[in-house]
Design brief:
InterPro entries: MORN, Morn5. It contains one helix and nine strands, in the order βββββαββββ. The strands form two sheets. Strands 1-2-3-4-5 form a five-stranded antiparallel β-sheet, with no helix packed on it. A four-stranded antiparallel β-sheet has the order 6-7-8-9, with no helix packed on it. The protein has about 130 residues and is mainly beta. The longest helix has 6 residues. It folds into two domains: about 50 residues; about 45 residues, no CATH class. The mean pLDDT is about 85.
């Protein structure tokens, strides 16, 4: 069984780095998600007892007083941090400048969906899944 400090990569590509005990996440550790997000937590026998999720763009999730993208404020996080664009210049995603989307494709958050081939590829154009 896994014991001590280590890392473990799940089939989804998510990686755990931290303390392990009796084959489980136990102690301080973090999950590193393929999209760039991280979840740092204190684990007890495989279950997080307290932790914090940070999105890839640096936004930290708060369980209470969450002000990002709620019913009253629909700005992207980068707009909250750096202000709105002048009239006539739209920001369509949180990334500024946005990713280049291949003609006729849709951004899925982890890659691009091509409705002609019904395939999702990652941002480096590697196959992810069939739709």
């Amino acid at each position: 069984r896994m014991e001590g400090q280590g890392s473990y990569t799940l089939p989804t590509g998510t990686e755990y780095r931290g303390e392990l005990k009796d084959g489980m996440f136990h102690g301080e550790g973090e999950l590193l998600f393929p999209d760039g997000g991280t979840y740092r937590a204190l684990w007890h026998r495989g279950v997080p007892t307290q932790g914090k999720y940070t999105f890839a763009d640096g936004l930290e999730y708060e369980d209470k007083k969450w002000h990002y993208c709620d019913g009253f404020d629909r700005r992207f996080y980068t707009e909250i941090c750096f202000g709105l664009k002048p009239a006539g210049i739209s920001q369509l995603t949180n990334l500024d400048p946005p990713r280049k989307i291949p003609q006729g494709c849709y951004d899925c958050g982890d890659g691009f969906y091509n409705p002609e081939t019904r395939v999702v590829v990652d941002y480096k154009l590697r196959f992810l899944r069939n739709a």
